[in-house]
Structures are given as C-alpha cells and as structure tokens.
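ok so i was messing around last nite and threw this chain in just to see what happens. nothing serious, just curious
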Amino acid sequence: MSTTIPFIIERVFTSPQVIFINGALSTVRPEFTIINQNHPRFEDAARSLADESVLHVYKAVFYNIPVQVKPSQEVFCVTRGAYIGVVAGWENALNCVLGVPGAVHYRVDSIAIGEEKVRIAIDEGYIEMVEPWASPDL
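result:
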C-alpha cells in the first residue's frame, strides 16, 4: 500500500514569527509592543521567552511573568538562570536554574512581589540570563 502526501513542507518554524512584549508592570494595563523577525532584538526576545509566560521588558532587559498561577503552585523569582523573571511552580523554576552555575532563585509570595524583585535586580545590575552549563571553568 502506498501513501501520497498531498503537500510539501517548505519551512519549519522553531520560533514564533512575532513576539508580544509588555513594557508595563504586570499589575497595570498592558503596553504591548509587537516585534517581528526583522527586528534587531527579535532573537534576544525569542531566546528570553519561557513557556507559559508573557515576555516583559524593563530597561532593555527581557523577563518573564507567568500567564497563570494555579492555587497549589508556589511562585519563584529567578534573577540568574536560563530564563529570568517570575515563574509558577517548582518544576518551572527548576527548568530555569538547572545546569546554571551560581543560579539565583527564591520563593516569593506573589507575582507582583517577584516582579518588583526582578526590576530591583535589573536596576542594581544583578540579573543575568545564562546558558545552562556555561561556565568559564568548564
């Protein structure tokens, strides 16, 4: 028995073609900017965007805020990791810090408190997105 495929896949996209970036605090009305693949910071934004998150920007630094926090989930702030920002649940926090030397993360009481801590870390220069297992000593 033979099978005919009625179409040809010409291109497979591994990243989105556009990214929505919120320039406002998560507690106020969103101020979205849409960037496409031709934007000079598109690759940085695509690399920064974690699953199930809205990408925010503050002082040209991208960070994540979760779309939803389930009632039983804890909230974590990650200021040095593979992804930075606020994440819902230990599993997501672990995905941000696993394999990152010197990863910095801690539990917070709410998304708003976590976002405040992220922005303070940006202001003070203590925030860093790091490739997992990337260390000058390795």
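not much to say yet. The longest helix spans residues 111-124.
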